[in-house]
């Protein structure tokens, strides 16, 4: 089914970053829905057709492994090691990470040329936007996180990747929307305020 211009504009304008998802036990986000999102992502514009994006879709085991990295980093940042507060924060973070219905990590293949790297990062951001839009159209929310797990050596080792070859640029937390997040972050500056029409 094709969309007319107004429908497409409404889809783009309605998309939001969402943090609340329906439980994966009752509304699981299945592989075919994630695949559909990834298939939209790879059609993003990319200069010289470098196709610099890489995706890792976590399964139950890898999500559990990464949960420990996430929780450790979160607890270390907020409390003294081996304190009660540290343990409490660690446990809460483990539970939070396990609740995400699906997690997709996004990486950028690193070109030796600095200009090409900038172009490739822009292409990866476009790919993530494509993914978010097709997800939103299916009632799937996405939170694009750039948190500390993306800088962790443990994460790179888990993925079998080298920092010299790939830079992790996003953790996409995904799930079917819970409640209405249409109203959050709904404001944008008007086009007239951010554009100039030159003669």
From TrEMBL:
Its cofactor is FMN. Transmembrane segments: none annotated. GO terms for molecular function: oxidoreductase activity. Residues 12-176 form the Nitroreductase domain. It comes from the Bacteria. Keywords: Flavoprotein, FMN, NAD, NADP, Oxidoreductase. Belongs to the nitroreductase family. This is Nitroreductase. It comes from Thiomicrorhabdus xiamenensis.
